[in-house]
C-alpha cells in the first residue's frame, strides 16, 4: 500500500522520537543527543544514540539504526505499513485504507473469529458431559469454577474432527483454520483437529482478542506435555505474555513473572493479580520489550530447578537493559508457585515476595553458591567471578554497596573486591576501545559490509560517498551548492548510487528525507542511519565540506576513467590518453 509522503512526514513530525524510544529504553541526555543501552543486542557499555534533531537513532555497537518508523518496526516486529498505522493511531493522523489493506485486515479478522469460536467450543465442552474428567482434573488441582470461567479455560475433546466440523459449519475455510493453527491436513488428505484430549488455555491479547491456545495433555502417556499455537499472522510466541490482559491494570506497581499458564492462574486465584507467564520458556527480548510498556518492576518467580534459575538469570539481564528492576523469588520446598501456594498458602507466598533477592544479590549468591568456597581455589574463582560481575555496574554507589555484601559473603576484605573491580573496569574500558577502533577500521575498509559490497574493493571512494550522503541527509538544502555536479555518475558503489537515487528529489527540493523507506531494506536503512550518526556526532556539515567531497569524488572519477582509457588504448594511443587526463586535471584546477 502506498501511503502519501505528506502523511508519513506528519506522523514523524508529530512523534517525539526521544519520548517514544524511552518507553522501551532508559535514555540519558548527553548534550544534544540521548543515549542508552541498545534494545536490540546485549551490551555492557551503552552505545545506542538518539538524535532528536534528525529524528533518528543509531547503535554504534550492533549497527541498528533508522528513524521512528524503523524503530517501531524493529521493536514491535511489524512491517512498514503496520508500523505507520501504529504510529498514526497514537498521533491521530488518519491513514486511508486501500482495498489490499482491507483484504489483509479481513484475513486477520477471520483468524481472530476462528479462535474465538474455538475458545467458546472448548469452554462449552469442558462444562458439558464429555468434559467431566477434564473438569475434575482442574478442580483437583485447586482451581475454582470462578477461576476457570474467568480465564475461559476449556477442553479439546478426544476427537479427530469435532472442532473442524464446527468451524466448517460456521463457514470457515480449510485455509483459514490451517493458518490459525486449529486444524491440519493429514496424510490421507482429510483435515484433523490439532488440539485433542487436552485442557485448552486461551491466549488472549491485551486488547481482548483470542490469539491461540496453550493445551496441556490429559493423557500422561502423551510425549508432549503442552501443545502451543505456532506463530500465525496474529500470534507470535516469543512476544506473547500470558495473562497480561488481566495483569496490566496492576502493572504500574509490579508484575510477577512465572514459567507457565497454571502458575499464573494459581497466583491470580490466590489474590496476586499482577501474575503473568511465558509459555514454558525463558523470557525473550520481545517479551521484555512488551513488559517494558507496562511496568518498571518485576518479580521473577521461576521453578526452583536449575533450568528455572538459569531462566531467571537470563531474565534479569534482558530486563535490566530496558530499565526494569527485577527481584528473584526463591520458591523453597516446592517445584513451582502453584505447588507452593497449595502447601503453604497465599500469605506465606507474599512473604517470599517481600524477601526476594534484588538482581545483583541474586547473581552474587548464584555465583558464590555454585562453588565450595571452603576450597582455596574455588574461593579465588568466586572472588574473580564476583569482581567481573560488579565491574559491569554503571555507578560507583552500586559498586560500593555490593562490594561490601560480596566481601562478607566470601569472607575477604572489601579492599580485595574493590581492587579486583578497579582492574577489571580498566581492562574492560581498554578492551572496549580497542574493539571499537578495530570494528571502525574494518567497517571503514568495508570488511563484513553486507549492504555495500563494493566497499571492500573501493574503501576510499565509499568513505567519500558516505560522508557526502550523510551531510545531504542532515542538510539537504546544501545540495543546491553543488547541483549539477552531484549525480549518479560520480558515485562508485551501487549502494551509493541507490541512496542518491532514492533521495534525489528530497535533495533537489531541500526537504528532510524520510530514511525509513519502502524502497530500502532494514539493513540499508541502518547503514544510512550510521552515515547520519557519524556526521552528526563529529562531522563538518557545511557548504565547503559538500563542495570539497564532491570535488574529491570527481577527481577519483576522472582518474578512474583515465586509468580505464589508458588500459583499453593500444600502445600508440596511450600517450594521448595520458595527455588528456593531465589536461583535465589542469582544467579542473583553473
Written description of the protein model:
- The protein is an alpha+beta fold.
- Helices cover 53% and strands 11% of the residues.
- It has 24 helices and 16 strands.
- The strands form four sheets. The protein has a five-stranded antiparallel beta sheet.
- Strand 4 (56-59) and strand 5 (65-67) form a beta hairpin.
- Helix 3 crosses helix 4.
- The chain is globular, with a radius of gyration of 30 Å.
- 38% of the residues are buried.
Q: Can I get a quick summary?
A:
Helix content is 53%, strand content 11%. The chain is an alpha+beta fold and 590 residues long.
Topology:
Blueprint: H1 5-14, H2 17-21, E1 28-30, E2 33-36, E3 48-51, E4 56-59, E5 65-67, H3 68-76, H4 80-91, H5 99-127, H6 132-140, H7 145-150, E6 154-156, H8 162-169, H9 174-179, E7 183-185, E8 191-193, E9 198-204, E10 210-217, E11 226-228, H10 244-247, E12 255-258, H11 261-269, E13 275-277, H12 285-292, E14 297-300, H13 306-321, E15 325-328, H14 337-344, H15 346-354, E16 357-358, H16 359-369, H17 376-391, H18 396-410, H19 414-445, H20 459-474, H21 494-509, H22 522-538, H23 543-568, H24 574-589
The Cα radius of gyration reads 30 Å
Mean pLDDT figure: 85
Structural class: alpha+beta
Strand order of the largest sheet: 1-2-3-4-5
Poorly predicted parts:
none
Q: Give a count of the beta strands, DSSP E runs of length 2 or more.
A: 16
Largest sheet: 5 strands, antiparallel
Cα distance, first to last residue?
A: 51 Å
Compute the number of helices.
24
Q: What fraction of residues sit in β-strands?
A: 5-15%
Helix fraction, binned, reads 40-55%
Q: What is the 3D form?
A: globular
Amino acid at each position: 500500500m502506498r501511503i502519501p509522503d505528506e502523511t508519513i512526514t506528519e506522523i514523524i513530525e508529530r512523534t517525539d522520537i526521544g519520548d517514544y524510544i524511552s518507553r522501551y529504553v532508559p535514555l540519558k541526555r548527553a548534550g544534544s543527543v540521548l543515549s542508552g543501552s541498545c534494545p536490540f543486542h546485549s551490551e555492557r557499555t551503552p552505545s545506542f544514540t538518539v538524535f532528536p534533531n534528525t529524528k533518528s537513532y543509531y547503535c554504534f555497537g550492533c549497527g541498528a539504526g533508522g528513524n521512528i518508523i524503523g524503530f517501531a518496526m524493529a521493536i514491535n516486529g511489524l512491517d512498514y505499513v503496520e508500523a505507520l498505522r501504529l504510529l498514526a493511531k497514537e498521533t491521530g493522523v488518519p491513514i486511508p485504507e486501500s482495498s489490499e489493506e482491507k483484504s489483509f485486515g479481513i484475513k486477520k479478522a477471520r483468524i481472530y473469529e476462528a479462535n474465538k469460536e474455538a475458545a467458546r467450543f472448548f469452554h462449552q465442552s469442558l462444562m458439558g458431559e464429555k468434559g467431566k474428567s477434564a473438569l475434575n482434573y482442574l478442580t483437583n488441582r485447586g482451581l475454582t469454577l470462578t477461576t476457570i470461567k474467568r480465564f475461559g479455560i476449556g477442553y479439546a475433546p478426544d476427537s479427530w474432527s469435532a472442532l473442524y466440523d464446527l468451524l466448517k459449519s460456521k463457514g470457515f475455510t480449510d485455509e483459514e483454520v490451517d493458518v490459525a493453527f486449529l486444524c491440519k491436513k493429514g496424510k490421507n488428505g482429510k483435515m484433523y483437529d490439532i488440539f485433542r484430549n487436552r485442557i485448552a488455555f486461551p491466549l488472549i491479547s491485551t486488547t481482548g482478542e483470542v490469539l491461540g491456545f496453550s493445551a496441556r495433555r490429559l493423557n500422561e502417556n502423551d510425549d508432549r506435555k503442552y501443545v502451543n499455537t505456532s506463530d500465525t499472522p496474529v500470534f507470535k510466541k516469543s512476544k506473547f505474555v500470558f495473562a497480561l490482559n488481566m495483569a496490566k491494570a496492576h502493572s504500574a506497581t509490579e508484575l510477577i513473572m512465572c514459567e507457565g499458564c497454571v502458575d499464573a492462574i494459581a497466583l491470580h486465584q490466590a489474590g496476586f493479580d499482577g501474575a503473568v507467564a511465558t509459555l514454558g520458556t525463558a523470557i525473550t527480548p520481545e517479551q521484555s520489550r512488551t513488559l517494558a510498556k507496562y511496568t518498571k518492576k518485576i518479580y521473577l518467580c521461576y521453578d526452583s530447578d536449575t533450568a528455572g534459575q538459569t531462566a531467571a538469570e537470563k531474565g534479569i539481564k534482558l530486563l535490566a537493559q530496558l530499565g526494569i528492576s527485577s527481584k528473584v523469588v526463591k520458591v523453597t520446598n516446592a517445584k513451582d508457585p502453584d505447588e507452593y501456594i497449595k502447601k503453604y498458602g497465599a500469605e506465606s507466598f507474599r512473604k517470599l515476595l517481600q524477601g526476594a533477592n534484588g538482581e545483583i544479590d541474586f547473581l552474587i549468591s548464584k555465583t558464590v553458591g555454585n562453588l565450595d568456597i571452603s576450597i582455596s581455589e574455588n574461593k579465588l574463582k568466586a572472588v574473580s567471578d564476583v569482581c567481573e560481575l560488579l565491574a559491569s555496574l554503571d555507578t560507583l554507589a552500586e559498586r560500593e554497596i555490593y562490594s561490601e555484601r560480596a566481601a562478607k559473603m566470601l569472607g575477604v576484605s572489601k579492599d580485595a573486591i574493590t581492587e579486583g573491580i578497579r582492574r577489571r573496569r580498566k581492562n574492560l574500558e581498554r578492551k572496549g576501545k580497542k574493539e571499537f577502533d578495530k570494528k571502525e577500521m574494518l567497517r571503514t575498509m568495508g570488511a563484513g559490509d553486507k549492504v555495500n559490497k563494493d566497499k571492500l574493493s573501493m574503501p576510499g571512494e565509499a568513505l567519500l560517498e558516505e560522508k557526502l550522503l550523510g551531510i545531504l541527509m542532515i542538510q539537504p538544502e546544501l545540495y543546491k551548492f553543488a547541483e549539477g555536479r552531484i549525480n549518479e555518475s560520480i558515485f562508485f558503489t551501487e549502494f551509493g548510487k541507490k541512496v542518491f537515487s532514492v533521495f534525489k528529489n528530497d535533495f533537489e527540493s531541500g526537504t528532510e528525507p524520510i530514511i525509513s523507506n519502502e524502497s530500502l531494506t532494514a539493513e540499508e536503512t541502518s547503514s544510512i542511519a550510521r552515515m547520519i550518526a557519524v556526521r552528526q556526532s563529529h562531522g563538518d556539515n557545511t557548504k565547503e565540506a559538500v563542495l570539497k567531497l564532491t570535488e574529491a569524488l570527481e577527481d577519483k572519477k576522472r582518474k578512474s576513467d583515465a586509468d580505464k582509457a589508458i588500459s583499453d588504448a593500444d600502445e600508440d594511443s596511450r600517450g594521448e590518453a595520458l595527455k588528456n587526463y593531465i589536461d583535465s586535471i589542469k582544467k579542473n584546477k583553473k
